Amino acid sequence: MNTISVQEADFDVGAEIEALSAGRCDVGAVASFVGLVRADTLAGGGDEVSAMTLEHYPGMTEKSLEAIVAEADGRWRLLGTRVIHRFGRLVPGERIVFVGVASSHRGDAFAACEFIMDYLKTRAPFWKKEDTPAGGRWVDAREADDSAAARWAK
Amino acid sequence: MNTISVQEADFDVGAEIEALSAGRCDVGAVASFVGLVRADTLAGGGDEVSAMTLEHYPGMTEKSLEAIVAEADGRWRLLGTRVIHRFGRLVPGERIVFVGVASSHRGDAFAACEFIMDYLKTRAPFWKKEDTPAGGRWVDAREADDSAAARWAK
Amino acid sequence: MSIKVLYFASLRETLGYSHETLTLPANIATLGDLRDHLARRGGVWEALEEGRNVRAAINQNMAGPEVAVADRDEVAFFPPVTGG
Amino acid sequence: MSIKVLYFASLRETLGYSHETLTLPANIATLGDLRDHLARRGGVWEALEEGRNVRAAINQNMAGPEVAVADRDEVAFFPPVTGG
């Protein structure tokens, strides 16, 4: 089962990972990822970010995440996928995103989990604005994210 | 901080992942993996495995896991690693192994987590014996695991 | 034809609009035409000029400038995404 | 010289030993020599013959047949590992 949530609320990582294999005996591998708000900025420097606000495009967000997960399902043998992405105001240390993938074998689980994160970073309509001592600042898209996503082109 | 545990007891995945970023604001990514006992065997067929017993080489196990984690630390920019591997009797659906890796960025976290699992599979002295309707059967090493580990050679 | 246009993130702040409903002149066929049309409003709208790093979607699917715009479409303009 | 030898998993079951302490003849210098020496016991010990898929460690580090064995070493023989 694939489930996608776009929500303001935090989530329970342990429960989400547990749910991916609960009650079944064919799952041998669950790969997962948690993304968190960092206080340091990409530009470098010390702890500058006091908070971050995530904006998204309701409707398109869910649609794009569903398409990404469907593409992962077509590429690897998966037994379940869970994606949670938060929006709203978050402070450093808070969770932003969770991706969990269940499979029989670890290779498929790892690849699909990383693929979903890479595509999410370049295709899901989220935007981050950081609060810094100098005021609000929109985060620029990273070239590293584009090249990470481009790796998966076939 | 890197921590390795070889134990009979189960572990709390959510708490382990949480601990990798708790109280710090420089962790942007936690990649993790949970390996579980499957009821189906590599040879195919239906639900055949009723339980599995994991034997290990006390002392060498910890030493080899520490060496693997140290190698990962040398290859990627990591902010913390946690490895837990169980031994003893486990039934299908039970957790066997946990690897969690914290980093500023997801690329390093994913790569190190998969690297540790691949190396653990070929270098840590654990052996699995499955209980099946036909009796006990030692699991053969998989060529797929050797080639997964060989990918990381440089 | 009549379409809904949405703006997000830094573009929304720059333009001062989150959305608008537009009745389009007949010579506008594609997303690229629409973007030029909006940029010609001048001032802050020049943020939509060709060459500016703006992405677009039609009916919630990413779309390039060549894609046709149809009556009642939901069009969105926004900067490159930065989620995750 | 005197060494401790450990056996694990299917090899332990085949041999019927989990460990033994051995006083080695003077002509045994390497891990390969030791393995041949044990295989020559015959019967179940042929499981240690050259060509059988057996791995070894000296003092808890994986080691090949060329590695020297020293007094008081802890040597282990086992099948390829299958953890994780």
Give a structural overview.
The complex is a heterotetramer, with 2 copies of chain A (154 residues) and 2 copies of chain C (84 residues). Chain A has one domain: Molybdopterin biosynthesis MoaE subunit (Aldehyde Oxidoreductase, domain 3, Alpha-Beta Complex), CATH 3.90.1170.40. Chain A has helices at 13-19, 60-75, 106-123, 143-150; strands at residues 2-7, 29-36, 40-41, 44-47, 51-56, 80-86, 88-90, 95-103, 126-132, 135-138. Chain A is α+β, with helices and mostly antiparallel strands and 154 residues long. Chain C is α+β, with helices and mostly antiparallel strands and 84 residues long. Chain C has helices at 9-15, 31-39; strands at residues 2-7, 19-23, 55-58, 61-62, 74-78. A 5-stranded mixed beta sheet of chain C has the order 2-1-5-3-4. The model of chain C has no long low-confidence stretch (mean pLDDT 97). Chains in contact: A-B, A-C, B-D. Chains A and B meet through helix 1, strand 2 and helix 3 of A and helix 1, strand 2 and helix 3 of B.
In terms of topology, how is this protein built?
The complex is a heterotetramer, with two copies of chain A (154 residues) and two copies of chain C (84 residues).
Chain A: E1 2-7, H1 13-19, E2 29-36, E3 40-41, E4 44-47, E5 51-56, H2 60-75, E6 80-86, E7 88-90, E8 95-103, H3 106-123, E9 126-132, E10 135-138, H4 143-150
Parallel strand pairs in A: 1-6
Antiparallel strand pairs in A: 2-8, 3-4, 5-7, 5-9, 6-8, 9-10
Helix pairs in contact in A: 2-3, 3-4
Chain C: E1 2-7, H1 9-15, E2 19-23, H2 31-39, E3 55-58, E4 61-62, E5 74-78
Parallel strand pairs in C: 1-5
Antiparallel strand pairs in C: 1-2, 3-4, 3-5
